[in-house]
Design goal:
Blueprint lengths: L1 H17 L4 E4 L9 E6 L6 E7 L14 E7 L4 E5 L5 E5 H4 L3 E5 L10 E6 L7 E5 L13 E3 L2 H9 L4 H9 L3 E3 L7 E4 L7 H10 L18 H7 L3 E3 L3 E6 L1
Parallel strand pairs: 1-5, 2-14
Antiparallel strand pairs: 2-5, 3-4, 3-6, 6-7, 7-8, 8-13, 9-10, 9-14, 11-12
Helix pairs in contact: 5-6
Length: about 250
């Protein structure tokens, strides 16, 4: 009994010492209970880098007040970074140093009797296996699931691929934004996105595969409202928490 207790204590101590301690980035002087984004890297081998942008009208209490592009946020393999964005922050975190999924956040949602954090996932300019969600499993204010972005973009695209006829599959492969084979047993082996992607590609990701992000600029960009624009406009989500998780896989 004594031997078991001793070795168990040693094992617990070693486990504690070897655990990755979350580092802190963002504003140096943050308020307890202020807005924070946990940047979580689940990869055991890859370093994740996020391009950070802040609105030009961000107040002095916010990270990078009054600036656009800011120093990138780096998250080492297996690490979690607590990024304190500061009171009144509006901006974006883009995975793969700006070439992956982009996550827009707005921590100015105060209204009488209620606090709201607004957020969305944007795949107009790139896509990656990255998600944004409120910490602790919270739901959206409307009660819907709250995970924006996709944990596995290729798997999500493949879930819709065989619903298409061979002709449509081939048209999509011809664009170069999707790679794979056609037919009822066809399989996608690669997908990507950028701002040059045409309507067929956008429609596939936005409406057919139903990615949890907006892949189209939506009617807010001044374009005529369409099914695709309407789907994009639906991705302005809100939660009651000031703590969000961006998780890279």
């Amino acid at each position: 009994m004594h031997s078991f207790t001793f070795f168990t204590a040693i094992a617990v101590l070693l486990s504690f010492c070897s655990a990755e301690v979350a580092s802190t980035q963002g504003v140096a002087h943050y308020s307890p209970g202020g807005p924070v984004i946990n940047l979580i890297n689940t990869s055991p081998t890859e370093t994740h880098v996020y391009k950070v942008e802040g609105n030009a009208d961000n107040p002095p209490t916010a990270y990078g007040a009054g600036q656009g592009a800011l120093p990138a946020a780096t998250v080492l393999p297996g690490q979690t970074v607590k990024f304190h964005v500061g009171q009144g922050f509006i901006g974006a975190f883009s995975a793969q140093n700006g070439e992956g999924s982009r996550f827009e956040v707005n921590f100015r949602g105060d209204s009488p009797g209620e606090y709201k954090t607004w957020y969305n996932s944007d795949m107009q300019f790139g896509m990656s296996d990255t998600t944004l969600a409120p910490a602790h499993g919270d739901k959206q204010i409307n009660g819907n699931d709250a995970v924006a972005g996709e944990q596995d973009c290729l798997a999500k695209a493949n879930s819709a691929w065989t619903s298409l006829d061979v002709g449509t599959q081939q048209e999509l492969l011809d664009t170069g934004y999707l790679e794979g084979t056609t037919g009822k047993d066809g399989v996608l082996t690669g997908v990507h996105m950028d701002k040059q992607a045409g309507d067929k590609v956008v429609d596939f990701f936005q409406n057919i595969a139903e990615f949890n992000a907006y892949v189209h600029s939506g009617s807010v960009a001044g374009k005529p409202t369409s099914n695709t624009a309407a789907a994009a406009d639906a991705f302005s989500w809100s939660v009651k928490t000031k703590e969000l998780d961006i998780t890279g896989y």
